[in-house]
Each structure stands twice: as C-alpha cells, then as structure tokens.
Amino acid sequence: MNTATSASNIVNHAVVSKERWLAERKALLAHEKELTQLRDRVASERRALPWLRIDKIYTFDAPEGTRTLADLFEGRRQLLVQHFMFGPGWEQGCPSCSFMADHSDGMTVHLAHRDTTLVAVSRAPLGDIQRFRQRMGWQFRWVSSFGSDFNHDFAVSFAPPDLARGEVYYNYRVGPFPSEEAPGLSVFVKDDAGAIFHTYSTYGRGVEVMMGTYHLLDLTPQGRGERVHELPLREGSVVRHVVGGAARYGRIERQDGGRRDVARVYDRQDVRARPHLRHDPGADHPHHLR
C-alpha cells in the first residue's frame, strides 16, 4: 500500500466549517449524478450492441465431466465468464484474478435469480484448478478450457510467437504483453432455440466491475491505497495466499525482482491486516490500460 500517500491524505487534509463542507459536498454531488447518468447511458449502449453468433463448439473439463459452452448456462438465459488467469504449469492463479474471485460467491445467488450464471474459465488443467479452488475456499463454478481454443478466441491467452514479436491482440488493440494469459469478462446469451451469442467482453480495468471492495474504498479518504497507474505489487502491499491449507493475508516486506518475501501472516479475520488486495497481474502487466 502507498502508505505515504495515504498518510498525507489524513494528516494534511483540509478541515472547514460545516457550511463550506455542505457547499463542496453539493458540488461533488452534481458530478456524481453526472457520472450516474453517464453510467446508465453507457449501460444502455452496451445492451444495444449487436450480437455475434457462436457456432463453434467449445468444450470444457468440469468435475462432472466434459461440458459444452451451452452446458455452462445451467438452464439460464445469460452467462458471465470470468477469464481467470491461471495457465498450464502455473503453481497458482493470478492474485489479481483471485481478488476478483473473492467477490464471486456472494454474487452467484443474486445473479441466478436474474437468469444469469457466473463461471470462471482458465487454461490450467482441471486438477490444478480444483486444488487451488479448495485452498482458497471458493464455491463458485470453475472449469478448464485446457486443449480448447476458447481462451485464444476470446483474446485472453496468447501464442508464444505473438508474445515474442510484441504483437498480442488484447483489449481490442495489438501491442506487447508480458504474460501468456490475461484477465477479462465475457457475456453470452442463449435464445429459445438454443443458439448462443457473444454480446460483450471487457478487459484491462474493465474487470473492476467485479471488485466491489474497490468501489467502497473509493468512498474513503485513503481510497484504494494505490495510484491507479501503479498496479504491480510493491513493498507494503497486502497479498492473499495460503498457509497450512487456509487462506491468509501477508504484507510484502521486501521484493527483489520476481521474488517476494512475505514477513507476516495474518488471519482472515484480522481486518487491520487486509485493507485491500493489490492487483498483481505480472511485473509490468498493463492491467490499467483501457
């Protein structure tokens, strides 16, 4: 966490009369209403986007066996897919995607009541996914696209030659990228005849829609405790990991290249130790680019 910035926000902040506070709060309220109205307009434009019919057959490895994209809807009309960064051979999933996933279990029942299924998809083999899911204590549905074109077709997994040339297609543009996997969210709908359509995908900071913690922290004086354009983990950042089979939180005390030393381990209930979880998409992952 950027403690210097956070401390500055508290120690050096302006203190004014109630009258001035109300005047400035009302001025901010006008901007907030503009943002709400803009968000509503953008949501309407998003719903009005044309759809792309999906005729290709995608299969996934699930605990109960092979499943198709149609099966993932679980009888509902809409499907939300979290493209969870967890590639073949990785020891564990991306911490940033894990932060996103920490919000999933509470949302699934409410999404289901609105005819929407949420599922995470990763290229890691199912066995690796199940082990990591159990370690993290999650209950949401998570399947493997290992051996499928699904991740590549939806621009969240990249071929080594493209990475080497710096010509990776991600977030609707071509450029260099530091990882073979990337985060995203995709939306699908199924009609009465069973046809499936791709309606929307978002990448980069667009995935913050799943991170309710950030939206609450944005209301506080210290905010997220990080600069928007400085998302890779730094010393002092709090990370979620597992010790002794249970989820714990540790603060990074020293970082040397790719190595991180987590000096303290905190229980999940220790709220003082987990004011936020930092994005950690990779050393120079341009996760903030929109």
Contiguous helical run count: 9
Broad CATH class of the domain at 48-210: Alpha Beta
Q: List low-confidence stretches.
A: 228-290
Strand content: 25-35%
Net shape: globular
Q: Cα-atom Rg, whole angstroms?
A: 21 Å
* Content-based structural category: alpha+beta
Report helical residue fraction.
25-40%
Strand order of the largest sheet: 1-10-9-4-5-6
Number of DSSP E strands: 13
Query: What gap, in angstroms, lies between the N and C termini?
Result: 23 Å
Query: What is the helix/strand order?
Result: HHEEEHEHHEHEHHEEEEHEEE
Largest sheet: 6 strands, mixed
Q: Architecture of the domain at 48-210, CATH level 2?
A: 3-Layer(aba) Sandwich
Compute the average pLDDT.
82
Task: Let me know the CATH homologous superfamily of the domain at 48-210.
Answer: Glutaredoxin
The third-level CATH topology of the domain at 48-210 is Glutaredoxin
Description:
With 290 residues, the protein is α+β, with helices and mostly antiparallel strands. It has a domain at 48-210: Glutaredoxin (3-Layer(aba) Sandwich), CATH 3.40.30. Helices cover 30% and strands 26% of the residues. The chain has helices spanning 3-11, 18-48, 69-72, 95-101, 104-112, 126-136, 150-153, 160-165, 212-217; strands at 52-54, 59-62, 65-68, 78-83, 116-122, 141-144, 168-170, 173-175, 184-190, 196-203, 238-243, 246-256, 259-266. It has a six-stranded mixed sheet with strand order 1-10-9-4-5-6. It starts with a helix and ends in a 24-residue tail after the last strand. Residues 228-290 have low confidence and may be disordered.
